[in-house]
Design a protein that fits this description.
130 residues; 73% helix
């Protein structure tokens, strides 16, 4: 995806912060996914799914150079307090990009959830965890 300056609302320091949060939540997701596969406790699966959602959200925000929270608050990290009223198209494009990022993160999280459930059922049918 090519960079769109109209949608970009975070600086390089914030991009690194989003990437780092994605990495941290990915570690939590891996840990709780492994716990679910061995323990088969549903709340652990929900924690793994939540961690994978926030991991994907962090990575997607860093990749697209766009902060979802800044868009909903009508802010950016370049020193501008508010997006000007005259730039309503800019505000709309930032909100649309925010909803795209949230939807993609949810899709990634649900995909991981389905993979874990199928993997756990396959492990049970082979008799590994009986």
């Amino acid at each position: 995806m090519e960079e769109n300056n109209a949608v970009c609302n975070i600086n390089p320091k914030d991009i690194a912060r989003r990437r780092r949060s994605g990495e941290i939540f990915a570690c939590f997701a891996y840990f709780f996914s492994g716990m679910y596969l061995t323990a088969n406790v549903f709340p652990i699966l929900l924690i793994a799914m939540t961690a994978s959602f926030f991991s994907a959200l962090g990575y997607l925000q860093a990749r697209r150079k766009h902060c979802v929270g800044y868009s909903f608050a009508n802010l950016d990290s370049f020193g501008n307090d508010k997006v000007k009223k005259a730039a309503s198209n800019l505000k709309k494009s930032r909100l649309v990009e925010s909803f795209r990022i949230i939807a993609l993160a949810a899709l990634v999280s649900l995909s991981i959830l389905l993979i874990l459930i199928v993997l756990r059922s396959l492990l049970e049918t082979t008799g590994i965890f009986n």
